[in-house]
Specification:
The structure holds 2 protein chains of 2 kinds. Chain A is mostly beta strands. Chain A has 1 helix and 6 strands. The two termini of chain A are 13 Å apart. Chain B is built from 9 helices and 22 strands. In chain B, a hairpin with a 2-residue loop joins strand 6 and strand 7 (172-179). The model of chain B has no long low-confidence stretch (mean pLDDT 87). Classes of the chains: A mainly beta, B alpha+beta.
Chain lengths: 90, 392
Amino acid sequence: MAKVGWLKKITQAMELPPDALRPVPRIILSGNEEVLIGGHTVLLAYTPEFLSVSRAGLRICIQGSGLIILAMDKLGICVGGVIDSISFER
Amino acid sequence: MKKLQSFAHYLSTSVRAEIRGTSPERFLNLCAQHEIHVWGIEYRESNCLRVSMSARSFLSIAPLVRRSACQIRIVNRRGVHYGMKRLWKKKLLACTLLVFLGICVLMNTMVLSFEFTGYETVQPRQIMEAMQKNGLDFGTFKRTVDASDLRNVILMEIPELIWFTVTFHGSHATVDVREREPVPEVINEALPADIISDFHGVVRDLSVYKGQAQVKIGDVVTPGTLLVSGAVDLRLDGKSLVTHARADVLADVWYKTTLALPLTGTGKTPTGREKTRWALVIGKKRINFYKNDGKVFDNYDKIITRHTLSLGGWEFPVTLVEERYIEYETFDAAFSAQDLAADLTATARRITQSLDAGVEITSASARESGEILYAYAYGKCERNIGQTVVRE
């Protein structure tokens, strides 16, 4: 944790993107139809109304309807459907 | 993009599998960890998901299934490979496919269409007839055709051609020809020659370069009149020098056109009855889809429409022929001379103007005589009437 804090300070000091040195998830949201979470994520729960993934200690929760995992591999996960909200938990 | 991906998945052969277990999510995480690409993950019910993956990946997931304490079963197989296997099981379809492939291969060895390029005055029909005579026709096997021999024979048979090649692209034959340029007639200026008139006219200008003029400006000449003689008087004891006469003889010449049009004739009006016949022409073989070959009506107009099978600009020797017969009745018709006079006169003027370059119409008129309408047009122009004739 101390290492992460130290890296965070460096990235902030050098004005680098947050995910340049740390495993911060990069999330690309296309309207409310598709969300792409980059990096190796761990799928925690999945129903058509709720999907939860974990990435580097951060839990990302997606709520919506008709959610479907369009693709999933080591590079990321792509979720389609009607997305109502995305929330984060530590 | 998704359609493209689906197509790529179809080509690469994929399976749709159902995963059941206490934690199907764990199985998906293991797949991601082992770089197994899965897509189309669909929630079916609690503890049950459906996923798609490549057939090759499916063969290597057994350990992951065991580790995640799940059960997996194939729901559907997709892809070219499985499609072919399914087709193979249906023997009739497989036989049909084989027959079709055989026909394709057979057709590829035959000439089914022709394309002619490079011709100007020689018609493709003439070239085609010469080729047919020498063994190249629709349906001829390509291996029986010796293009080199054919070229030699065709060039002998059609002297207007200077170049002939036939190349085959599949079942399509491209015939490329070049025509011989006409060789201008060369006059041997060493031979003694006269210049005579080749037209009626009045001489307007005379420029003699060689020879002795026999006419003067204003003279009326007829075809064959000696204009410039090759025999030049030397004024030495009546002796003369024979030479090759050269001169430009310009004369006013006149043209006349007479057109006649009967004012009574037979008109026709359609009765409304029609009949259509169909036939299929494959190469030179015609298959009629009708029984009676005789006359359809007593009086009829026949309209033939040909629908040739073509693909990508290439025509195949398969033509559907539509013959439409339209019955008509005849009646005696009388035409008004006044209505037709202007049109007939204009036609006479146009024909007169087309007879020579620079023809100016001097007069045009129409007159009715009996039941015939006559139209006259007179034109005048200036032209060279001299024609070189070698002395005997």
